[in-house]
Design a protein that fits this description.
Distance between the termini: 110 Å
Helix content: 10-25%
Pfam family, one: Beta-prop_WDR75_2nd
GO molecular function: RNA binding
Number of helices: 12
Keywords: Nucleus, Repeat, Ribosome biogenesis, rRNA processing, Transcription, WD repeat
Number of strands: 48
Main location: nucleus
Largest sheet: 4 strands, antiparallel
Protein name: WD repeat domain 75
Shape: globular
């Protein structure tokens, strides 16, 4: 068994955002939290994920803002590195490698052995006071630690169970506490008898964080949720991750419509979680009862769920283990209008015992069948029946067949890919049925051991049926009804890829400290073409193949089984893991890896200095283009000044003049005036008359006598046009005093102007005051006519 270097196990999608306390930025605009091997930056106002900071190879274990730069954050990871990020632009600035390996943090922390044990602590920002929370729900305020006299403490009590989190506000005027009650309590410091409450936050509070300015509170919850609270009393945003409860009782499913992962959510719900966008789409209330957060209280919970192949029907089983087991089977139809599932049929007491498995047959246009297997010794087939066209009723579900085998308890069931066969296990025997007639076709036996899981082969391997026990993995050939091969493995989970012939089998290697191992193989070839040890600590409880949006290319032969589907698996520690190939990792890193330019330690690391560094590449490109042209322009000098530190910038008067000129040019281009239009017309006339005089480039001196320069750029054309638009009316006096300046063309046009000009002067003298320039133009032809 060999491990493959081009594939590794990573946290991708659905990671715990409550693993460590989040960080609120100094301006309260962003919230930063860890999420598996990456760091997420959320907007506190819109709940949108702004950036995914990716670069760590292992679990991120801590975050802290850079005290010398409020736009940066430090992160540390189990990969032994500390990374500095610019979280506003989502770029990596610096990586520091530590020569040590941090211990794994996946193990759960054992509970406190006594009710008055310390559970959390917080220090007052100004006074000599420390607040501690305890397992009995009490909060103690300890004072005079830094004084010579003996310390004292006082006690306040509201929480009925352990206090999970404590936090002082920045000014120290309030103390915040939270626990199992899902209530944020705000104590007035110095007046602890006065307190305010923010109830119904959804789940137990795990961490409390306050923004530096005190305007936002942030609570982290046990259901992998972060709540942003504004003005101490109003919930302004909720950032919901994949809900990690006490355990997943349903199977991991993929919704064919949304490609979302479907599994247990908060109590009594199913959650639909998008693995592509790494966010929860919605929760579906299955139990439809208010959940009471109290231990040792029997309440309904969702234990089984199944989706048909088109995503049109959802089947759920809810169960309550009181004195007598109460079971309900519910069928939900997808509503195109609401884009959600609506309850269609409720079947109370579908079996006399707990239901161990449910599955849909591959959907067809004619019929849809659901099979449920129970420990009462029977399996039942439920058929969707259409009502009479004359009746104003919806389609509903009813029992179509009840099957058993020698009074044995059935354990699991599955349909073949085309729906023509149904396999049901009864202890050590596998029975194969025809859903068309419900006839028993054959029975298959195997070495001693109860069948725990069944799986049909796909595509070219559809003639094989796989069965797993706690000791063996067996493969039967359905054409010969004989055992094809078997191997001694303690398989805990068996599942087939719906888009290929591949089958994944998880088992525990007891010889290597209970580390889980996975085999990927084809039923026709018992030798695995992929295997990997030490996937995680403990057992893999659930797994699913999720179809990819696009096939993955460039993989090595050993990882080509991941081309069309991605394998996700859930551990007993509620960690959602998956396999990542080297080409896929390189593609993701190419999209997210934006390393900032090398920082000179001799220059102060200010935000403006980092801004200059970000523009280096763009300015170098501009300089390369300019250098390909002959001559040196002022624009190139301005671009070069951006390549150095702040002390080496261009002079302030040069910067201001360029900026003001650019703003003026932009304003003039957007709002042309009559004077500019007249001047442009005069420029056109002058260009027609003096076309033999070539223009001189702006950067050349008039006395150099040099030859014509290179073609002007657009920026230089705009600047030259701005120079042309300047008012030169003060020169007109000199021009009109010279009788030689006038041309014959102007003298011919003058009589028309002499006739028309006096009339508007007599009628509308007011425009003469507003636009004196036309008056000068009118007077000029009059003088010209007099000269001859």
């Amino acid at each position: 068994m060999v491990a493959h270097a081009d594939t590794r196990v990573v946290h991708r999608g659905g990671s715990k955002i409550n693993f460590r306390a989040p960080v609120i930025t100094q301006d309260s605009r962003f919230l930063i939290c860890v999420s598996g091997e990456c760091i997420k930056v959320f907007s506190t106002s819109t709940e949108e994920c702004i950036h995914h900071l990716q670069g760590h190879k292992e679990l991120v274990t801590g975050l802290v803002l850079n005290p010398s730069n409020h736009l940066q954050v430090f992160s540390c990871s189990e990969d032994g590195t500390i990374r500095l990020w610019d979280f506003t632009d989502g770029i990596l600035i610096r990586v520091t490698l530590l020569h040590l390996k941090t211990p794994s943090t996946l193990h759960s922390v054992p509970g406190h052995c006594t009710r008055n044990a310390f559970t959390c602590v917080a220090c007052h920002p100004k006074d000599d006071c420390i607040a501690t929370g305890h397992g009995d729900g009490k909060i103690r305020l300890w004072r005079n630690f830094n004084q010579e006299k003996e310390y004292t403490f006082s006690t306040v009590h509201w929480h009925h169970s352990g206090v999970n989190a404590l936090c002082f506000t920045p000014e120290g005027t309030n103390l915040l506490s939270g626990g199992l009650e899902s209530v944020l309590v705000q104590w007035r410091y110095g007046q602890e008898g006065q307190k305010d409450f923010l109830p119904r936050l959804g789940s137990s509070i795990k961490e409390i964080v306050v923004s530096p300015d005190g305007s936002l509170f942030c609570t982290s919850h046990t259901d992998n949720k972060i709540t942003v609270i504004k003005n101490c009393t109003k919930v302004s945003a909720v950032i919901q991750g994949l809900v990690h409860g006490d355990g997943v009782k349903t199977a991991l499913m993929v919704d064919p419509r949304t490609k979302a992962l479907v599994l247990n959510g908060k109590p009594g719900h199913l959650q639909f979680y998008s693995l592509q966008r790494d966010q929860q789409l919605y929760n579906l209330d299955i139990v439809q009862q208010e959940y009471i957060n109290q231990s040792n209280l029997d309440q309904f919970e969702v234990v089984k769920a199944a989706l048909d192949s088109r995503g049109s029907w959802l089947a759920t089983v809810e169960q309550r283990s009181a004195k007598e087991v109460e079971i309900s089977l519910k069928l939900w139809a997808f509503d195109e209008h609401t884009q959600s599932f609506v309850l269609n049929t409720t079947i109370s007491a579908p079996h006399d015992g707990p239901i161990s498995e449910i599955c849909f047959s591959p959907s067809s246009q004619n019929s849809t069948t659901l099979v449920s297997v129970s420990l009462d010794g029977h399996f039942k087939a439920w058929q969707l029946t259409q009502p009479d066209p004359s009746d104003d009723e919806e389609a509903s579900w009813s029992c179509d067949f009840v099957g058993d085998y020698h009074s044995l308890e059935p354990k699991c069931c599955c349909f073949s890919a085309d729906g023509s066969l149904l396999a049901v296990s009864f202890k050590e025997v596998v029975t194969v049925w025809s859903p068309a007639s419900w006839d028993l076709l054959t029975t298959l036996s195997q070495p001693p051991g109860a069948i725990q899981d069944l799986c049909f082969g796909r595509l070219s391997c559809s003639k094989y049926l796989l069965g797993a026990t706690d000791k063996n993995l067996c493969c039967w050939n359905l054409l010969t009804c004989s055992l094809e091969w078997s191997t001694a493995l303690d398989v805990s989970l068996l599942l087939a890829d719906p888009l290929s012939e591949n089958v994944a089998a998880f088992f525990d290697n007891n010889q290597t400290s209970c580390l889980c191992v996975v085999f990927v193989f084809r039923p026709s070839e018992p030798r695995p073409h992929f295997s990997q040890q030490a996937l995680c600590t403990g057992r893999v409880t659930r797994a699913v193949f999720a179809p990819r949006d696009e096939p993955l290319d460039g993989c090595e032969e050993s990882s080509q089984w991941l081309n069309r589907s991605q394998l996700y698996f859930l551990t007993h520690n509620m960690e959602l893991l998956t396999f990542l190939t080297k080409p896929e990792e390189e593609r993701l890193m190419a999209l997210s890896k934006q390393v900032a330019p090398t920082i000179d330690d001799s220059v102060a690391m200010t935000p403006f200095y980092l801004l200059l560094g970000k523009h280096r590449k763009r300015q170098e490109e501009e300089r390369d283009i300019l250098s390909s042209q002959s001559g040196v322009r002022n624009l190139r000098l301005w671009g070069e000044s951006w390549n150095f530190g702040v002390p080496n910038l261009a002079p302030g008067n040069h910067v201001m003049s360029s900026c003001v000129s650019s703003m003026c040019l932009l304003r003039d281009e957007e709002q042309p005036t009559e004077v500019e239009m007249e001047s442009e017309k005069e420029e056109e006339d002058s260009e027609e008359e003096g076309a033999s005089v070539p223009p001189r480039p702006e950067h050349e001196s008039s006395d150099t006598g040099a030859k014509l320069g290179p073609v002007l750029t657009k920026a230089e054309h705009r600047e030259l046009r701005g120079v042309k638009k300047l008012d030169y009316s003060w020169i007109r006096g000199l021009v009109t005093s010279n009788p030689v300046v006038n041309t014959t063309k102007q003298m011919v046009k003058t009589p028309k102007q002499r006739v028309k000009t006096p009339k508007p002067m007599a009628k509308t003298p007011k425009p003469m005051v507003k636009t004196p320039k036309p008056m000068v133009k009118t007077t000029k032809p009059m003088v010209e006519t007099t000269n001859p």
